[in-house]
Amino acid sequence: MRERKPVIAVPIGDSAGVGPEIVAKALAIDKVYEAADVIVIGDKAVMEKAISIVGADLCVNVVEKPSDGNYEKGILNLIDLHNIDQASFVFGTVQAMCGKAAFEYIEKSIGLAMDHEADAVATTPINKEALRAAGVQFIGHTEIFGALTGTPDPLTMFETNGLRVFFLTRHKSLRDMLEDITKENIKKCVSECVEALRKLGVTEGTMAVAGLNPHCGEHGLFGWEEVNEIAPAVEELRAEGYDIAGPIGADSVFHQAAIGRYNSVLSLYHDQGHIATKTLDFDRTISITNGMPILRTSVDHGTAFDIAGKGIVSEISMAEAILLAAKYAPFFAEK
To answer: pTM for the whole thing?
Structure first.
């Protein structure tokens, strides 16, 4: 009897971008085939064009649901929403048609996961302008997943080469970010991070909180956030039983976590964590959206309109997103 693999739903993203190409390339990789049964949600004509462009040895098999798929090597199982008009389709441009289609692919993928027909979703790039042109009332994946899964505040985690990074704040200016560096916010975020790790099967090890100021403020010489907010939050969390360390200087904490001293790091702002993970390995930095009833991983690059349709995009990030979804899906299902 064939061993059951995790079923990973993959929406192809914005058809005018590189999403279809990275899906085709990733599904031709033996390691991906061995790790997961992938069900692609997209448009048949778009995927056949992408397969031709990248020269992948794949044959499209259109199905109604994941359980109908033929998961033999060389077969790309596709739920065809047939929503791209090839007569007006153009690579590398913002098109309302593509924005609407991208939303529909994501919506279908979420439905499959919510109905337990897929074990996780691994997403591809979408374009915010195309979504807006289509009248879609969401600015990105996280907002779509949050709304369609009933999750008010999804939690983002990056993982690359074993380094896991959470974010206290993300899309805010540095000036506005400082207002959110409070003891209460840190404690709430850490508790959510620990629960997210538990659902992913990570129950051992210490979480680290990064410092904000140079040298963690040097006891107030370079700022008081560590003294007044961050250190007190860590002390209270420890007293409550959390295995937590910090604040630890941001110039060293990510390295220490990468070599195994900590199981994860709480980054205090967007670029602090993004720079660390992407410098370590840009292509293999994968985003995981936590706090939802379903598991979602994602590539961490955009639609790359400038190279779309040329067959030269790297598939590494897409492959890693599928592999990471397959890695965590069994643990997630148990929680």
So the answer is: 0.89
